[in-house]
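From the pipeline queue, job 12 of 40. The input is one protein chain; the requested action is below.

Action: predict structure.
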Amino acid sequence: MITQMKQRFNEVLSTINPSRKEISKFGEVLTPEYIVDEMLSLTTITTETNILDMCSGIGNFSIRILHHLAETYPQFSANDFLTNHLTFNEIRAERIEKIRYIYGEAARIVDTPAQQIKNQSFDLVVSNPPYRRNLDIKILNSFIPNNNIKELLIIHPSRYLLDHKDNSSAKMYRTLKSILSSHLISAKFFNGNPVFRISIDRSIVIMHADLSKQINSIACNYFGNEYISPDIENITKFCNEWFSIVSPFFTQIKNWIKYNQSVLSQEKTKLLKHNAQIPIKGHNTQIPLIRGSIMQQLFLMQIANVIGGHYDNSLAMYNDDFYTLIMKDWRKNIGIRKSLEKKVPMNTFCFDTENECDNFIHYLRTDFARFCLCIVKNSFNINSGELNCIPYMETYKRPWTDKDLYEYFGISEETQEYITNYLPDYYGIRGK
């Protein structure tokens, strides 16, 4: 029986080849067998384990669960397990039809949206939920509190675990982190683009949690770098160096901003003060920052989203231009092109003199400013969260170098060395 299911599963799988457009529209990606096996190896499944294959698609998890049980237990009955212990959750009629074809009429299928399932009990929930517009987060935030769940194995985008800034999604991220707090066992981060044939601007995480236990530490693996986090709030891409170097630096910068100003606090401030209009068309687009003289002789500087590329391998997620507000080649900056074409307002700053404007540009190119950005930037978009973590210096009548900034903020030599090693010398100006 298992052999026939696997044959039918592979038959159906061979006919499913969604385009990138379809993936973007429906938010569905198929989980490869080796990823499923890696996830299932994190837990213990017996013939008595009650399992929900949530947002199941055609049952990529279920077919491997049945295969594992058949190999482990000689007297295993797939029909009995499907009838009494395994539940599929799928809402699309064409996928439900395929589940029936693969697993037979014994398959139990809940065709209710996952976020609407309530008052159910499961020993294990496995899922690769749809990602589009944070649907995975919305599903988990609703599903987990409304049901009696023991163990979770979820693979989805990791931004909610890595973000250390406020943005439009911060509230829902905090909700999920609160639900998982003290229950998260492990988190493994990797580049999902070559795995799922998608173009997603953040890492993917395999998340394992046991909601029936209090967990005192979390085993983290960030692109092969393993470390232990004491709690969910200290999971970062900086691994062990977060505790000794990055977190103290970030805390110092946030405290300074609290009593002074961030780059965000100065955006459009002078324009609003002078009731100036922000022009969108007619700029010189031959440089990544768009400057021009506007009303009342103010010098305008605008920044668009820096949307750089990513590497198609599992060892590096982003190109070197990811950790900058100013790309060397403006033609690669999709954000600027979209802003100009669609007349979307960009982050706008203005100064009394051209010299001040140039000094501000130079400041944003420093390793110091780029590292402040680096700490909170986990996707291609630049928004208020990123800008609010970069200090706005008290004057730009003078240029600011990294040496000046490190001395001003009292940054230790160890931290300076770490910043130099972590960030690529993107502009080739280091030490000049």
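Job complete. The domain at 2-239 is CATH 3.40.50.150 (Rossmann fold).
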